[in-house]
Write the structure tokens for this entry.
Amino acid sequence: MIAHRLTGNPDAPPVLLLNGGLMTMGAWEPIAGRLEGDFHVLRCDFRGQILSPGEPEPSLEAHVADVIALLDGLGLERVHAAGTSFGALVALKLAALHPGRVVSVAAITATERITPAVWEGSVRAREAALEAAAGGDGGRVLDHVIPVTYSPSYQEAWAEVLKVHRKQTALLPPIWFLGIARILSSLEGLDLTPDLARIQCPALIVAGEEDRMFPLEHSQALAAGISGARLEVVPGGSHGLVIEKPAWVAEILKDFLAPLAS
């Protein structure tokens, strides 16, 4: 079973929070803490992330299978699934493949497909991860990711913290870099468009107006492809919404979930 943490109200509806590609579940804490009074909150690290080390199969379906195994192991029949970036793609695939297990889905800073431009950036990050696994500078992975994840103002305000984060990342073991490379490989040629019509549960699409990794038109395409989906656009928001604006993300999730959980 992949590493996980289950907190909050055990008598309340379960909410599953799924990580972005380079995240670990601790990054959800500012959001999870705001949800725990009303929900049973489940977080996990995907295979290949820091608390679930290994080399996952390079496909979304493999990660969906891991999530289903986790839910089965915990005895959770149905969940509200919310994810950001890579985790949002897994959440959408989960809702399409296992509609009986997903009450609702929230996709934060996501995309309906991986364009050649997005894949070009992912390839560079993957190559940096593979080089790091072979003994290179692991901080180079973040050199590719940070500029397209966070807003310029956030990068400026948190410059010293991000420098420390880069140094810490460079010290991670080779297995982490191999896992990240495999996670990035699962994006190659990805097209969720055929899956969207299969998603019949309530859906929330949250977009950052200034998202440089998955530009706004991709969130709009997601919302258009899922029947009845609600689209929320954060003015000036970046790809890193869950880190930069956790209070706002928590409130929009609570607003979306409240009528579904009653």
Summary: The chain has two domains: 4-114+190-261, 117-183. The longest strand covers residues 102-108. Residues 4-114+190-261 form a domain with the Rossmann fold fold (CATH 3.40.50.1820). The chain has a mean pLDDT of 96.
